[in-house]
């Protein structure tokens, strides 16, 4: 719904994502605030922002696949790993620069995702979840047993990306790199879902039989959704490996895939804003719990640390459960209601 | 025409329904203006109020901070709590008994980051912001996650990681406080080969099978063991690598026994080894040592360090009495041999009123954590002695504290040294064969300390004669 008193007078206005001067003002203010962040926060907070950045890219991909196209995946962390290992292998064995590896990370992850997306042509729902779960295990097995290509159990290290003599070797520099790529990916995702492809995804999600009757090629769009989802994962993997500096099989665990899916629901499945809310709440909640559990341990020295640490898992699981039961449309829906209230503010109806 | 100020003042906040469209625009303009001004002013205020980076204090600092990454809720959840307890207890004991290091208390900052690389990096940054001088991590995965950052920041990591690639080739950032693979795994095989199996009497060489989890730590010792077996005429009949946390090992065990194994090396983690031992007992594979080596179809289970834990042994008490493993640590009843054990026991009795009382308090793990903090404290103390508090930083601790460090007093293990050979990054390298002491719920040393030849510290090795399932990178 448009703000009261705002009317679309042309097709361009109708298609605009940012429509009013207030929205432009708020958007520019947000960008300035975001890019000024290194001026007034510590390295630790920048690390969190960077983690949110690449987690968001991975969750955006998952959102396109699950939220928009209705295909489930429990292997997203492994696809992030494919992107990371592609960059590491090309850099480590062939001496490629980080920038040259970026498209290959994205494309390789996309094609691997395409392969594991093939079962989506025959199965859906629970069974598709199981096949993508298989992807998670198979890909991690490949990382572990890839010999010199993947470094096996010792993993692979990478050098920091650089442009000429400018090396991305600090959290501040990485912040700008990750934020720019993240904003580009958000922009891409936001626009993708407004295209014919995006509408086809939604049609497949809502009723695949009806979509097929309408002339939508189910096989094509389901596989395309897997491909795009994994391209996002590949980019996230590229960001993650250069941020951390090494690829190691333990860094792409199954639990990440599951938590991301859970927090997409918390944020709001099927909306780009929802993925943003999901990524921010996931990273911040985990961080809050990581800080809180030692504090509780110090306040109650008689109680085992493991109990307070376990509280973290409990709270994270509880948050997902509460949202599924009480607000399955996620924080995004609440945000929309909030905006709607103010858009209608002068009127009582 | 009314000014913006007049329009704003004319707003009736108590009846929002009466707000006109123009007034709405005023509210928006005010809100946007406020945000813009906040945005500009906040960094300036932050810059003005931020403390200037302090120059190294001429005197002693209030505390010396050590960061610890642990895994209380991830895959290492069953072994990490006693390691963390030992780590924190040594710092507490040091602060209480000796007033810390040179009168400066040690402060332990820790975080449960599971095996999550992103959480590890975030916690590392948080600790770095709080000026930690040394980092510590419980596993290879966590050490790998922060190694690059620590290299750039020149902050040393003293770790329990056993993955040899962290130490070979040696870096000056990663230091192992305890024994690394294959030191711990080979000790038992050398003991069995040289002290148990009598080739002349048995008329043949012995045969070994390997059962390992598919993770870095449990596979890390395999290449060294393969090499030793090849060089000493031990026949390898099979390697069974299973994904963690498998709970049924019967097929793998049967295959190894059918292939003629006299010994099965169990390279698992936590309570899984107890389950494997129980299944060996149920399959009739276990017997006392003399009977086991003389009877076809019976085997001797040799356990890696992580498998030879109290939780694993408690899971299968009837089978545990047939198992053998190793220990680099002194046991709680060996106070006369290890002055560090006496010191540790005294502290535990003072703090807890007893020594061990539950499976959570695995002695080997606790000792490992205790020993880790001891290495860190000793390195800091040595560096302070060399460069003084004013010049103490991560680099000073690396160069003047850890490099060439030797500890000879109050040890809970054998010798601890980073000066045994060029590029020595492994603190404890003396290991003893051990059996399980059910009465004392600890590992019972059954031989003298051994030092595994460095030539077996290989990251990869291809056996001369291939065997089923062999693990080659």
How would you describe this protein?
The complex is a heterodimer of chains A (349) and B (473). Chain A is mainly α and 349 residues long. Chain A has one domain: Orthogonal Bundle (ABC transporter involved in vitamin B12 uptake, BtuC), CATH 1.10.3470. Helix content of chain A is 73%, strand content 2%. Chain A has 16 helices and four strands. In chain A, strands 1-4 form a two-stranded antiparallel ribbon. In chain A, strand 2 and strand 3 form a beta hairpin. Chain A is globular, with a radius of gyration of 21 Å. The mean pLDDT of chain A is 90. Chain B is an alpha/beta fold and 473 residues long. Chain B folds into three domains: 46 residues; 171 residues, 3-Layer(aba) Sandwich (Rossmann fold); 170 residues, Response regulator (Rossmann fold, 3-Layer(aba) Sandwich). Helix content of chain B is 42%, strand content 15%. Chain B is built from 17 helices and 15 strands. In chain B, the strands form four sheets. Chain B has a five-stranded parallel β-sheet, sandwiched between helices. In chain B, strands 7-6-8-9 form a four-stranded parallel β-sheet, with helices on both faces. In chain B, strands 10, 13, 14 and 15 form a four-stranded antiparallel β-sheet that branches. In chain B, a hairpin with a 4-residue loop joins strand 13 and strand 14. In chain B, helix 3 crosses helix 16, helix 4 packs across helix 5 and helix 16 crosses helix 17. The longest helix of chain B is centred in the first third of the chain and has 29 residues. Chain B is globular and about 110 Å long. Chain B starts with a helix and ends in a 22-residue tail after the last strand. About 2% of the residues of chain B have low confidence.
């Amino acid at each position: 719904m448009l703000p009261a008193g705002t009317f679309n007078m042309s097709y361009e206005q109708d298609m605009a994502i940012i429509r009013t001067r207030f929205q432009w003002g708020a958007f520019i203010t947000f960008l300035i605030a975001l890019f000024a962040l290194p001026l007034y926060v510590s390295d630790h907070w920048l690390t969190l922002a960077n983690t949110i950045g690449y987690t968001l890219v991975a969750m955006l991909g998952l959102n396109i696949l699950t939220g928009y196209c209705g295909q489930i995946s429990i292997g997203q962390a492994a696809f992030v790993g494919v992107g990371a290992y592609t960059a590491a292998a090309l850099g480590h064995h062939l001496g490629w620069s980080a920038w040259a590896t970026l498209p290959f990370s994205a494309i390789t992850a996309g094609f691997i995702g395409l392969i594991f997306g093939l079962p989506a042509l025959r199965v859906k729902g629970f069974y598709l979840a199981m096949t993508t779960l298989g992807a998670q295990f198979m890909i991690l097995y490949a990382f572990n047993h890839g010999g010199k290509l993947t470094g096996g159990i010792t993993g692979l290290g990478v050098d920091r990306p650089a442009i000429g003599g400018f090396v991305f070797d600090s959290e501040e520099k990485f912040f700008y790199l990750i934020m720019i790529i993240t904003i580009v990916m958000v922009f891409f995702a936001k626009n993708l879902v407004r295209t014919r492809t995006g509408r086809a995804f939604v049609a497949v999600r809502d009723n695949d039989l009806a979509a097929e009757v309408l002339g939508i090629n189910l096989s094509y769009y389901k596989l395309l959704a897997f491909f795009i989802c994994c391209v996002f994962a590949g980019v996230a993997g590229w960001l993650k490996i250069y941020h951390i500096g090494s690829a190691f099989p333990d860094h792409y665990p199954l639990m990440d895939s599951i938590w991301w899916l859970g927090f997409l629901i918390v944020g709001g499945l099927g909306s780009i804003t929802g993925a943003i809310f999901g990524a921010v709440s996931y990273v911040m909640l985990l961080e809050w719990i990581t800080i809180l559990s030692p504090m509780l341990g110090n306040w109650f020295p008689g109680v085992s640390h493991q109990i307070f640490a376990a509280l973290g898992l409990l709270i994270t699981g509880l948050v997902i459960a509460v949202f599924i039961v009480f607000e399955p449309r996620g924080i995004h829906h609440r945000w929309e209601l909030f905006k709607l209230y103010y858009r209608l503010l002068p009127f009582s109806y | 025409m009314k000014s913006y100020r007049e329009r704003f003042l004319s707003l009736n906040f108590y009846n929002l329904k009466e707000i006109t469209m123009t007034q709405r625009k005023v509210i928006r303009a005010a809100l946007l203006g406020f945000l813009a001004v906040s945005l500009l002013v906040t960094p300036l205020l932050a810059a003005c109020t931020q403390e200037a980076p302090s120059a190294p204090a001429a005197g002693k600092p209030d505390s010396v901070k050590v960061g610890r990454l642990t895994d209380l809720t991830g895959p290492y959840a069953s072994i990490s709590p006693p390691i963390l307890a030992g780590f924190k207890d040594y710092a507490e004991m040091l602060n209480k008994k000796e007033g810390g290091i040179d009168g400066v208390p040690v402060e332990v900052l820790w975080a449960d980051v599971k095996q999550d690389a992103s959480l590890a990096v975030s916690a590392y940054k948080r600790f770095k912001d709080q000026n930690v001088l040394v980092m510590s991590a419980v596993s290879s995965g966590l050490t790998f996650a922060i190694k690059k950052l620590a290299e750039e920041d020149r902050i040393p990591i003293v770790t329990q990681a056993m993955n040899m690639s962290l130490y070979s080739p040696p870096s000056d950032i990663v230091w192992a406080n305890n024994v690394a693979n294959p030191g711990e795994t080979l000790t038992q095989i050398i003991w069995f080969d040289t002290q148990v199996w009598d080739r002349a009497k048995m008329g043949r060489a012995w045969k070994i099978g390997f059962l390992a989890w598919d993770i870095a730590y449990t596979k890390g010792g395999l290449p060294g063991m393969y090499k030793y077996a090849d060089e000493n005429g031990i026949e390898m009949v099979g390697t069974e690598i299973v994904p963690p946390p498998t709970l049924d090992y019967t097929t793998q065990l049967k295959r190894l026994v059918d292939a003629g194994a006299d010994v099965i090396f169990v390279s698992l983690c936590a309570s899984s080894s107890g389950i494997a031992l129980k299944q060996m007992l149920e399959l009739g594979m276990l017997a006392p040592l003399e009977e086991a080596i003389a009877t076809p179809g019976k085997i001797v289970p040799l356990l890696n360090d992580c498998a030879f834990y109290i939780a694993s042994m408690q899971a299968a008490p009837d089978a545990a009495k047939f198992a053998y493993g190793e220990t680099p640590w002194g046991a709680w009843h060996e106070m006369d041999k290890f002055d560090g054990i006496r010191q540790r026991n005294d502290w535990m009795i003072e703090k807890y009123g007893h020594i061990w009382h539950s499976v959570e308090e695995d002695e080997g793990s606790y000792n490992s954590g205790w020993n880790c903090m001891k290495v860190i404290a000793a390195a800091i103390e040595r560096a302070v002695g060399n460069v003084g508090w004013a010049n103490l930083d991560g680099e000073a601790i690396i160069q003047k504290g850890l490099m060439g460090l030797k500890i000879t007093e109050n040890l809970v293990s054998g010798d601890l040294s980073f000066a045994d050979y060029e590029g020595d990054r492994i603190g404890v390298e003396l290991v003893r064969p051990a059996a399980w002491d059910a009465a004392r719920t600890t590992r019972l040393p059954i031989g003298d300390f051994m030092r595994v030849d460095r030539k077996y510290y290989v990251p990869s090795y291809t056996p001369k004669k291939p065997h089923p399932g062999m693990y080659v990178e």
